Amino acid sequence: MYARSKKILAFLIFMLLCEIAGLLVLLYIPQPGLVGTNNPANGLFICADGDPPHEHWIAYAPMINILGETVLLSLAMYKAYEQRQGGGRILPQLTKESLFFFAAILGIHVGNLTCWMVNNLTTNELFTGFAFGIPAVLANRLLISVREYAELETIVDSAPSRQLQFASRPMSELVLTDPVELRSFRIEGEF
Question: How high is the pLDDT of residue 6?
């Protein structure tokens, strides 16, 4: 999609390293008042984490994901704008699917951030499972969709036809004559 651009690769690796560093700082530097429990309400047994009241420390973890997904969505939007007039057969499908992919994941991370900013122990982890599971499902959907589209184009290009076209002279440049319709086909002889 980006023609194996070394600049894009270096930028994505830099973004990944920054995301890892930010999450390590947020999740592994102890802060006073952080809450971790397996019983946030009477009769509700789930693992729950939370920030101290009126403070948001762990809530910034989804913000790091939002920044990364916003950059990826912006790159996909740029590529879709760049390829709007042409770009082959598969690239428009890939850009359309990647726009859906990154927009959906960005929405999940915004929902996750909203839950963490409200800071209710029973709802803080509401979107966390989706933030981990949905990208894997959408990545498979993206690959399957592009693969099906590529196979569909191949089938259409090589589908059997009832017309034959011949070159004007054998072993010459491929200059096709008018098509000849094939009405019947019979093979005789021993096999």
Answer: 92
